[in-house]
Design a protein that fits this description.
3 strands; mainly alpha; 3-stranded antiparallel sheet
Length: 136
C-alpha cells in the first residue's frame, strides 16, 4: 500500500496538487485503487490515474475510480474502457452486462464539461436511436 500511496502522491503533485505520500487524505482513494487492483479489471484506469500530470484529467480519473469502486463494493463488476460497437474506434468508460445479456454503457464526465456534453448528446439523440441520456 505504501508504494500505491507514493505513486498517488506523485500523480497529485504532477497534476498541481502538492501533497506528501503520508498525508492521511490520500488513504481513501488509495484504498479504492487497491480494491480495484485486486479485481484485475481496472489496470488501465489505475495506470492512467497514477500517471496523471494534469489536474482536469486527474479529477476525471478519480471520479471514474470512485464510481467503479462503489460498484465493486456492491458486488457488481463493471468492464472498463469498452468499445460500444466493433466498427467504432471510440469506447465507453464502463459497461455492465445484465443477466439478460443486455449491456448498460456508462460514460462519465465532470460537471465542468456540461455545455460540451449537452451539445454532444443532442447531436447523438438527433442522429441515432441507440442513445439515451440523463444529465443532472
Amino acid at each position: 500500500m505504501n508504494d500505491l500511496l507514493k505513486r498517488l502522491a506523485n500523480a497529485l503533485c504532477a497534476s498541481g496538487y502538492p501533497v506528501n505520500f503520508d498525508d492521511g487524505r490520500l488513504s481513501p482513494i488509495a484504498e479504492k485503487l487497491d480494491l480495484l487492483r485486486s479485481t484485475g479489471h481496472y489496470a488501465r484506469l489505475i495506470s492512467d490515474l497514477l500517471g496523471a500530470n494534469d489536474g482536469a484529467n486527474l479529477r476525471s480519473l478519480v471520479l471514474e475510480a470512485t464510481f467503479a469502486s462503489q460498484f465493486e463494493l456492491a458486488g457488481i463488476p463493471l468492464l472498463y474502457e469498452v468499445r460500444h460497437r466493433q466498427d467504432d474506434e471510440t469506447s465507453v468508460d464502463f459497461v455492465r452486462k445484465a443477466d439478460s445479456g443486455k449491456k448498460l454503457c456508462i460514460e462519465m464526465r465532470l460537471v465542468q464539461q456540461r455545455q460540451a456534453l449537452t451539445t454532444l448528446f443532442e447531436e447523438q439523440l438527433r442522429n441515432s436511436d441507440y442513445f439515451g441520456t440523463t444529465l443532472n
